Structures are given as structure tokens and as C-alpha cells.
Amino acid sequence: MKNYILFNNPSIKENKLQTQLDIMKKNKDKLGEYETFSNYINICDWMIRRQEYNFTIDAFEEYECFNENKKLKVLDIGCGVVPLCNYISLKGHEIVALDPIKSDIEFLVENDMNSFHNSDVEYMHGYGEKLPFEDNSFDVVYSVSVMEHIATGNDLIVLSEMLRVLKVGGRLILTTDVMPNDEMNYRKYTYPFTSKTLSTVFDFLSNYGDVDNKEKTSLLDTLESLSWEQVHQFWIDSKRFDQREEEKREYLAVGFIIDKKQDYVLDEYEKIQLFLQGQGVLIEGFYYYQDVATLREKEMIEKENVIQQLLQIKANFETNFYVRILKKLGLIK
Questions:
Q1: Which neighbouring-strand residues pair with 122?
Q2: In Gene Ontology terms, what is one molecular function of this protein (predicted)?
Q3: What is the mean pLDDT of the chain?
């Protein structure tokens, strides 16, 4: 299988999580009051998601074949309510599924999601920036569509933590959102990656293992030439499968794997610098979105004022119209 791939096929027929999704659909009436669960019944079957889950499963099963008859210890970073961890558990492996959204973990635990899938997942609330595990604890670490939600700076801290807890000889499997290049050389706020910013990730990963330069270069070249028209066309073409309301979205996704060859310790100074960068980006993003919200509120107030004026004009017109009619009929003077 390819180790580096852009997901841009709008007609993938197979979803390897179909059995688990059918279980989610079957229990929608029972569990659907939790909005995230209800939403992800559809989102998990989106065309972009099919490709991400299939890639992750293929990469995991390839590694599984290399370690035949071995019970693997697996970590899912940013599991949400997606049943990928249940799929892995049913293959007989030990898996921990971790997410920073406490309500998701509480939902999964309180509703005993394992009982629905006959799985044995250990659900845990936690943060990728500081994983509560010893070094070299897991054979496989994977994360699907999570990295784009992490601020610049913090994203490399999370990567270093994933690789810290991954055993030498273990496999890291990642998918993340991407978009065409913009004018910036860094990810502002929590944007998808571009060829420029993803290249930084690959450079960082090379500290831990061999990065396939041929496949990496091919993927980065593809992203370098990626256009918004191509992105939008994927979403337009896949809309009829996805059962979503919006016509298009502003990203695609990529998947890549790395087999860890050696440990690499991110020194404390570098970690602090990355953390400070992440905090700065989050603060900048907070003020940016606050300004956007203030501007939109002002626009909404102005629109509401215009609407009220138009309604008043309409009311005055209707009143004057009926008065003229009544006068013509001689019913009023």
C-alpha cells in the first residue's frame, strides 16, 4: 500500500467500518439524543471519511500481518464517537481510545458502548499534548482527522508525544485535512495543512524513522498544484453519497504512516518554544474570531433595522391602500 496518499476519490464503494456503522444506526433511537453521536452516524460514512478509515485499517492490518499472532497494544488519539477503536478491539487487540472532549468519553462510558459492539475498548479523557503513558508503551498509534484541529506549535508537541509512547518498531498512522497553498508559511489558528506546512511535519517525523522521500515528494507536489476548484469538485461529486446539506467544503485529506526506527527526545527549550507558539496562535485566533463575531453581530443588527423599516413601509402601504378602497366604496369619509 502507499504510505502517503491524497484522498480525492468521490466514488469509494466500500466502508470497512460498515458493520460498526450499522450498529450505530440500529441504536440511533436509543442513543441519538446525544447530538455528536447522531451527527456522526452520517459523517462516518462521508466519502472523505471512508477513505480515511479504510486507509487507517489497511495500514493497521498490514502492520498486523508483519506481527502475526501477536496481541498488539494500540492507542487511538482523538477517538470521538467513531467506532474505529471498536473495530480494532474486535480483532483481539488491546486498545485505549483517548479524547479531549470529556462529554464524548462520558457518553461512551455511561452508555457502555462496548456492549453494543461486543468490544473491549478502554475509553479515556486526556490531551495529546501530554499523554498519560510511559515511553514505548504502544505497538500502534493512530489519529484520524485530528491534527488540523490543533494549533500550530502544539501540533508538533502532540506528534512528539505520539512518537514518545510508540515503541521502537511500532507504527504511527495519521490522516489530516489539507487545502491549497495560501500566502502564509504557517498554519494560522487551526487551519488544514498545505504542502508547505505538511513538509514541516515530514521533516519532524524524519527524526524518528525513514520518510519515503519518493512518496513524500509525490504527495507534496500534488498538494502544491491542488486548486480550490478540485477541492470543491470533490465535495460536489460526493454530495449525493454523503447526505449532507452544504454543497461543498474547504478541504480534502491525506494519510501517511511512519514506522519508528529510533527514539528522539524533544528538548525542553524546543518544547517550550512550540508551546508558546501554540498559545500565541490560540490567543490571536480568539481575538480574530471575536472581531468576526462582533462584525457579524453589527451586520445582523443593521439587517434587522432594514427589515423593520421595510415591514413598516409595507404596513403603511397596506393601510393606505385599504383606506382608499373604503373611501371609494363610500364606507368612510
A1: 96
A2: S-adenosylmethionine-dependent methyltransferase activity
A3: 89
